[in-house]
């Protein structure tokens, strides 16, 4: 009977192997998915009873947990409320988390694998487990300046350090008070939540990185100009066709300049002047000459179509897949189906400012843990790649400086600083006020900043030039970033 | 001329004692950790529980030294460690519960169980004696199984009618039935194995059993279906039928019995699934635990999964998780409770302990020389395997969830006592398997230099 006994032992081994496998599957491979299931209250219980880490800006917590005398033990507080809400997001017992509170949740809650050694030493020393804090790259002066300059108008501002990709400011307006969602008064929270959801201006959306994308308008001419220069067939003095109206092929319609006049004598205009006065017909015909593939390739080098996490996920900006000739003409001036985030617009200014190299935008300076907030992790600046050659970047810089010195962007001038910029006015529907855009960069001493501003409700149709509305906002933000 | 020195196998009792000390130290240490985490002090019951468990285990160890000195040295320490770990987890769950009396009860049942195992070793000098009671065992097994159905005596707890109750005490007679039926299967099949294995028509490569030999397997099948229908207990039904088929296969060495058994089981399962609402519901919960329509019924399973996921690789640490969220966290779902607080590492250790326990049982079955002992040891070892598989498989979604208890770990007296008796029987059989044969002198006239022995005298 020993032969069947050995076979029975093999069956026993198989049964046990199945149990080892199923247990491993649940506790290792499926663990994250199970922990993140919406109905899993266990994570919330564990988190609520735990000292969640802070979000820190320049040494001050903008989001922190304070002990309270109720069953939840800790209450989340947002010191500067709406100014930072699009970055911090909210932490609500009932409605979950958003933005950094979500993207960095495992670090803040102290459950991240990145904190493994810290957890191990806590385990050995018997410390109560608690969350780590995240130190942000935001500059409070720049953030506040951007918030004040928007002054409650619908829109968004992003400021980057072009050399590192550090996000210096990220403002979205209208915003909301995350304290109202973090409250432990369930009824008040649900009322507030429903009011926010019902608000047509969608205050819970961070306009800088997500939600509905914007048409970039004339700021996209930077991409078209970059593609032209990179092709090697154009210089800043190359003459382009710049008539008052451009006949669009395959249609009976035309594409005109905003002033309704030609861009230069004999309907001809140099590339630098075309950018300076934002000549639609010149860039539209340039775009048709270069072709959709050249524009798309250049746009992708500036970051279009990329899935970015900063560490919140950024909605990828898009260039239309297969435009016909008139659609291509519209796309070359940032209309038709070109869609961008303000962060993307800031990224192309930043790449030009950084000699053509695009850095990955990033909000996390370092992760800190323990009583002394010692640094656990410092993410190194990351290159996304080279967007344009150094010489193209230099030429584009010249051209953008001309925009601010004597073109459509004069309202962004700063005394003693050479500002390079580009205006934009994006139509997004007949009769609707256009979006006012401005993107720029400037250097002073060891400081450098690249900015993108969008203001949604630009008043009446004809007064909405990016130069008039958005450039002054960019100016204030740059001044704050460059200091004094 | 060569002289032959008889070789006496080592008794390994000292190894057992050393392992036992380690097992008790681990359990006592875990108990201390619970207290330190809870309020920073050593818990007051530490001496009682550590000393109690250690003392009882040492008593059984001394019985072994005296009455069964060649018994397997690993079985007792493994069972003690599992029992101790169960006590710790039950105590830890007492702390999170308003009903905080489970751990003392479990300690009491541990004492009864260990003493029962000692009594088995003391009274039962040779397991072959049990063979005489083959049909008594059958009757006893059936009576035990049917007891819960008696009006007045039987109790339905959580939908399963597998309990009997007298006053405040309740007991699952099915747990004891497992042992007596293993005795019956072994005794019956060791006699009938030839008839069941040698005759019958041949179909392709399979030798089919004769129609009249189908009787026993059909009876076993009907009995297990009966349990399923009358007592609404899938686990027990699966346990008995699996046990019978396994012992039948070992006795006859014929794969056709297994195929036949599997076919019958699948037919029964399909029948039950299509006929009975509660079986259908169990299967639905198993396949779609997260479906909104199952939310109420699958709550326990889903919370168990969340608990295990929360534990991850290393666990939250004792008293740092929330295993108390899971209903029946200290009995049916003690596996997920351990997973949450001791992690994947802890569960691997638990599974390995069961694996070692079963492996020692099967090794005993292979080593022992009488057919009855082989079948009994194999049956007992396989019943532990099935029980672990049905419980853990149910909690981890390998199979639908059914109601069986984790041997030694889960809170519950009937299961604990009967599993200690299983260990007592395995110890007794292993003692006979390893005990050296009485010395045989080779007469100088034989000229034979090797020890030969045709008949073994117990």
Description:
- The complex is a heterodimer of chains A (484) and B (458).
- By secondary structure, chain A is α+β, with helices and mostly antiparallel strands.
- Chain A has a domain of 250 residues: DD-peptidase/beta-lactamase superfamily (Beta-lactamase, 3-Layer(aba) Sandwich).
- Chain A is built from 18 helices and 21 strands.
- In chain A, β19 and β20 form a beta hairpin.
- In chain A, α11 packs across α13.
- The radius of gyration of chain A is 26 Å and the shape is globular.
- Helices cover 64% and strands 4% of the residues of chain B.
- Chain B has 14 helices and five strands.
- Chain B has a three-stranded antiparallel β-sheet with strand order 1-2-3, with no helix packed on it. A two-stranded antiparallel ribbon of chain B has the order 4-5.
- In chain B, α6 crosses α14 and α7 runs antiparallel to α8.
- The mean pLDDT of chain B is 85.
Low-confidence runs of chain B: none
Named CATH topology of the domain at 217-364 and 381-482 in chain A: Beta-lactamase
Mean pLDDT of chain B: 85
The total of beta strands of chain A comes to 21
Question: What is the oligomer described by this structure?
Answer: heterodimer
Main sheet specs of chain A: 6 strands, mixed
End-to-end C-alpha gap of chain B: 30 Å
Order of helices and strands of chain B: HHHHHEEEHEEHHHHHHHH
Output the structural class of chain A: alpha+beta
Give the strand order, joined by hyphens, for the main sheet of chain A.
3-2-1-6-16-17
Average residue pLDDT of chain A: 87
Using a beta-carbon cutoff below 8 angstroms, give the protein chain pair with the largest interface and the number of residues from each chain.
A-B, 38 and 50 residues
Overall geometry of chain B comes to globular
